[in-house]
Predict the structure.
Amino acid sequence: MRSKSIAVIIVAAGKGERAGSGDSAVPKQYRPVAGKPVLSRTVDACLAHEAVSHVLPVIHPDHAELYASLGLADPRLLPAVPGGASRQASVLEGLKALAPLRPDRVLIHDAARPFASPDLFGRVITALDQHDGALPTLPVTDTIKRSLDGQLVATTEDRRQLFAAQTPQGFRFGQIFSAHMRTGTVRREFTDDAEIAEWAGLRVAMVEGERNNIKITHPEDFTRAERIAMADLGTETRIGTGYDVHPFAPGDAVWLCGVKIPHTAKLQGHSDADVALHALTDAILGAIGEGDIGVHFPPSDMRWKGAASTVFLRHAGDLVARLGGRIVNLDVTIAAEAPRIASHAPAMCAVIAETLGISAGRVAVKATTNEKLGFIGREEGIVAMASASVEVPRVD
């Protein structure tokens, strides 16, 4: 007897608006978690079970370039197909695309659930031997109240009978395809594929879900996703420090943390002489053992003559991402008698956060004087010191 073929549809056609955009307008399924895009993680999770024959992403029609930029490649990964105006319509498009392959079983999984384990896929697949459909669930632990008007409690539900549904949800292909096709005869939007199966009279079993199988929906979910990803990798926290000094030269403005501040002089240097970003770049490079800024951008190289120091900072952030790490927090201290810096600190934090793709809450910029002492006190130059805390996969 031949083994049953199993296909997985990844529903990735949404715009991810509830998750917010954070540092960019990139939809949530293409945003990185611990240096790897959410959708890349989800595809890997679907391919991790050896019984899976095909994986088919269903993407938004406007996201073809974003999807291509992921560079995904696997013999079992089918070309992505465009989805519809709703989740339900997108799943139907995926089922239509799979129909020529005639899989025995199909699992339908949310792109925003990147941490489903092979064991979870296995439990759903095994349940399909005895049932028309199967989905992972978790018992509801909160007390659930029902309200008719959203203001007053009408009743308290028996939570012993309530379960939170997850994906992947599995079905026998012909049955769920037929059920989806029949939904066109009713004016109703179903919340998930198990509800469609229930409506069609199919028997749907529950299997044990996973707490880490979270659905990334809101901005704060990315923080939890980062923790899950880093815990899976096994991480360690590293600290780096940076120090830089630049003298003044004739000019009318200084660049500090990517912000141009009018002044009676400029800072002298090969690039834009942003002493603060140089110190911060060194701190990040130091945390991951990648030398200093001069190793990556030697002052003898004329390509960097007058360059914006955000280029250097972004490079350091990219190196962290390539390691599968993340920046936890950054702290910059600028020592100068003039210009006055404190009022520019929020803008500086914003530039650093945008350059590195992190939240501004992870960045601190402080200013101090040298109480008229030394070369800083004589207004001959500016000193910057920085520290960086970075989480990276543990290397034994």
